[in-house]
């Protein structure tokens, strides 16, 4: 007797044939495949939106950090800077691709993807395990940004095929932390063919503190957009780099000129090179390959000291004029000393701090009764600097802004 499959159905002519169940199974499988397709497309879209959210958070954090290091903010208090930086983060986030994704869903673009912009401090920004401290709002060095697309805010990411199953929107979020600092630099490491900002000039700690407390002369303006210097006030007072009698503090015996970085036989050509490009690795050999004030931890092995002693050179050569002309308006680093011993070329300066400045004007002509270089404070971002978590050896000098988380 012939065996029949239970899925066979009798035909009218008495023969048995396979039923249309395969069509039913195909329909079921097609539905399942459509569901998988919807799932894969929408998951892929959410992954893209998640990537956009991370780019958005990164860009917003960097924009805020850049605003915190804006030279214009030197004339504003910390709360003003934080407010301005927060606004920059919001504006930057609104321009990112994730905002366009959100607008397609929300119609009018209502709602911001920014959840939080917080300013805190990390003693070691490169330590990913350290928790951000928000205990001191007046001393931040990092900005934390969180962005999200959430239906509760009207900024959810729209889905496509998943709508068949009642899922109209998805949620994505991302965070980023950008570091900025101008008070942690403990020294410089020079690299071949890579300029740095350190110049062979110094000013006394007493004169610098007096300037910070009472500086009122404001005759020059630096425009960060055009990078030019013009006559007129800009809200950031200036001071004369030297000679010291301009400040009434004749602290240096003899005619103070430059300080020696790496050699006590500085030629004009050597000084010009250091003004333009900073010291070279060869210049720093006498300091153990790195000009440091404090001990440093981490990947760089250095012997730390509490101060550095530098020889001095008398006078300022008119030959340096061309070098100073080339750096007008550029952010540069000079040194602060708290003690000097010996006259003229025998003077030895004890360097205790680095400070960021920009050169605005100079008069080194032989006819000048009082040779001078006019400077004003400036935020200097230099990749050759060495940061120390507990350092108090710099003002306005630090590493370039960077993402640390």
SSE diagram, text form:
Elements: E1 8-10, E2 16-18, H1 21-68, H2 78-94, H3 97-106, E3 114-120, E4 142-149, E5 157-158, E6 169-170, E7 172-179, E8 185-188, E9 198-204, H4 205-214, E10 220-223, E11 228-231, E12 239-240, E13 256-259, H5 268-277, E14 291-292, E15 308-314, H6 321-326, E16 331-341, E17 348-363, E18 372-377, E19 380-381, E20 385-387, E21 394-395, E22 397-398, E23 402-403
Parallel strand pairs: 9-16, 17-21, 19-22
Antiparallel strand pairs: 1-2, 3-4, 4-7, 5-6, 7-23, 8-14, 8-20, 10-11, 12-18, 13-15, 15-17, 16-17, 17-18
Helix pairs in contact: 1-2
Task: Explain briefly what this protein structure is.
The protein is α+β, with helices and mostly antiparallel strands and 405 residues long.
Structural notes for this entry:
With 405 residues, this protein is of the alpha+beta class. The chain folds into 2 domains: 21-179, no CATH class; 185-400, no CATH class. It is built from 6 helices and 23 strands. Strands 9, 12, 13, 15, 16, 17, 18 and 21 form an 8-stranded mixed sheet that branches. Helix 1 (21-68) runs antiparallel to helix 2. The longest helix is centred in the first third of the chain and has 48 residues, at 21-68. The protein is elongated and about 105 Å long.
